[in-house]
Amino acid sequence: MDNPSKQLADEYLRLGGHRRAVIDDNIVSTRCWEKDTPEAAQFWKDRIDTLDAAHRRQVVSFLPTINRI
Fold first, then answer.
1. Model confidence over 20-61: pLDDT tens digits?
2. Which residue ranges make up each domain of the chain?
3. Is residue 65 helix, strand or coil?
4. Contact at 8 Å (CB) between 48 and 13?
5. What's the pTM value of the predicted model, to 2 decimals?
6. Which SS3 state, helix, strand or coil, does residue 62 take?
7. Contacts (Cβ under 8 Å, ≥6 apart) of 23
């Protein structure tokens, strides 16, 4: 069963989003080396940027990560 944060991350990626999660010492951020599709960029702006910081971190945690395990 998906949770709302995972659903947002999955939809962003489905729309052609290229942001990747960076998690370092409990600091969560994103990096993007490729331009998002217009649909993904608008989705991020409308649905993810508008979240409070805690919920945005939850969404980012479901993106592919650049961290090594």
1. 999 888 788 898 889 999 999 999 999 999 999 999 999 999
2. 4-62
3. strand
4. no
5. 0.88
6. coil
7. 61, 65, 67
Measured between alpha carbons, how far is residue 52 from residues 15, 30, 38, 47 in Å? 22, 16, 23, 11
Nearest to 62 by CA among 10, 1, 2: 10
CA distance 61 to 39: 21
For the chain, give the number of residues.
Answer: 69
Look up residue 21 and give its amino acid.
A
Three-state secondary structure of 1-49: CCCHHHHHHHHHHHCCCCCEEEEECCEEEEECCCCCCHHHHHHHHHHHC
Longest dimension (CA), the chain: 32
Residue 49 one-letter amino acid: D
